[in-house]
Every structure is written in structure tokens, then in C-alpha cells.
Amino acid sequence: MDFGGFSLLLIVLIGVALAFDFLNGLHDAANSIATVVATRVLPPLVAVGFAAFFNFAAYFFFGVHVANTVGKGIIDPGIVSDAVIFGALMGAISWNVITWWAGIPSSSSHALIGGLIGAGLAKTGFSAVVWSGVLKTASGIIISPTLGFTLAILLVLIVSWLFARATPAMADSTFRKLQLVSASLYSLGHGGNDAQKTMGIIAVLLFSHGHLGESFYVPTWVAITCYVVIALGTMFGGWRIVHTMGSKITRLSPQQGFCAETGGAITLFFFTNLGIPVSTTHTITGAIVGVGSARRMSAVRWNVAGNIVWAWVFTMPMAGLMGAFFYGLARLADRAFG
């Protein structure tokens, strides 16, 4: 790995990628802690520290399958340039800021994918896109919340049967302890899937500058840095979105919180090991709706859930448009000052 040849522009772009990673952690903190905060198992400040620790710990549990997908499975690495990466990152960051400010739990993952596709299309047209990777990623938009929903309902049924004879006080005490386990597992899954997306971006940027030699790979320092930065972002939390995820969709008990987090964690572990970049937001939202529906359909505020789904639908195309716009700006700046 040749550090001596890093240009100022490359360093700046790596900094922008890490800014996205930080914002990803901040934006998606709600995914990891909304349920434990809503059920009052942990106070908010302790919860974000807890989630941040396990976000970083994911480094020791997962490989780089998702990073490889993002780095070379969305757009052709051969067309990647500084302007493409800048456009992709700024498109994703812009959409994240808009949805964070509005308190809408959109997907940082799909914002990044949309930004990449938009910037790639703006540069070379449809030939830039690796359609197999895009279709694999797009399938996660439907499958991950559906799987989270299904697993959460199954877990509710299982634990309800197991604790049918338990007193409410005993069940509440047990699941308050178990939620610490399920929340840690979900935070591991969040760190494992989401930090790798920024790894892929930085690795393909290094590859395009010739710092990885002939073959694409993710350097160890890139992996560690991305896990540290996403953990720091989680430490700062995203309180508007915590409120939406933890209380606006449905009211949660510790038992329901455990089932939602466990169903979400299983889903994230499954997709991460397959190398598919999925949305932790989609996953936990599906699981929360699942546990609410298991109680009764009217327990879910379907208008709130519907607004979240619309945000999912618009995320990739809006981030793509913004990615193309910022790619164009970068090209104009290059011609003006290059």
C-alpha cells in the first residue's frame, strides 16, 4: 500500500467518504437504539454508547463481502473517477441530511447506491452500471423488511407460547435483560453491513488512483477507520428518527422490542454474509411493524409506516439525481480550475 503518493484531492475525497460514514452512523443510530430507548431498558445516552461499541466490534465478526459489492458490483470500477465518487457521496449526504432533518428514517445504504448509479450514468450512460449487482441490491429493498417482519412475528408467537404461564412482572424483567443481547446483536449487524459500504467507496477510490495495484481489495486500515467513524456517528445519535422509530409506528414492550431486534439482527447477519448491501432502516422498520401487527393490526400507525415506505421509494432516484448533479458540478469545477 503506497501512502506516499496520496494527492490532496484523494485525501479530501477520503474525508468526504468518512463524513458520509459518520452521517450514516448518526442517521442510523435510531435503527440500533430506538427499541431499547422506547421500552426504557436503557437511557438514550447509554444506549448510543452501547450501540457505538457494538458497531465497532462488528470489525471482528464480518468479512468484506458487502464492501466488495459496493466497490465493484454497482458501477464498473473502470469508469470510476474523482468526480464520480464526489457526486455519489454528495448525493447520498444531501439526501441523508434532508431526511434526517425531517425525521424520516430513509436508507443511507440506498442513498449511497443511488448516488453511485446517478454519477455513473451522468459520466458514461447505462454502460456504467453493473445491473446484476444493482438488481441484487434492489431485491433487498423488498426482501429485508419482509424477512424482518416475518421473523419478528414468528418470534412474538414463540415467546408468547414460552411465557404463557409467566407473570407479567417476570416476563417484563426477563425481556429487559434479553433486550441488551438483542440490541447488541442488531448493532453488530448494523456496523457489519453499513460500515462496509464506505469501505467499498474508499477502496474503489484508491484502486482508481492506482494505490491497490492490479487487483481490487479492501486495506485493513480502511476497514478499521470506517468502523471507528461509524461508531462515532452513532455516539451522536439521531433523536428525531429515534422518536419516529421508537414510538410513532407502534408502542413497544420489552418483549416486542426483543423480538423486533432479534428478527432484524438475523436478517442483517444473513444479508451481510451474502455480500448484499441492505438497509438497516428497512429491516428494523419491517420488524417493528411485524411485532405491532402480531398484537393487532390497529396497533400499527399505518399512516406513519406509509410515509416511511414512500421515503424508501424515493431514496435511490432522488439520491441518483443529486449524485448526477454533483458529478456535473465537479466536472465544471475541473474544467474551470483544472
UniProtKB/TrEMBL annotation:
InterPro entries: Phos_transporter (IPR001204)
Entry's localization field: Membrane
Membrane topology: Multi-pass membrane protein
Assigned keywords, A-Z: Membrane, Transmembrane, Transmembrane helix, Transport
Transmembrane regions: 43-62, 83-104, 110-134, 141-164, 221-242, 263-289, 309-330
Protein name, entry field: Anion permease
Record organism: Phenylobacterium terrae
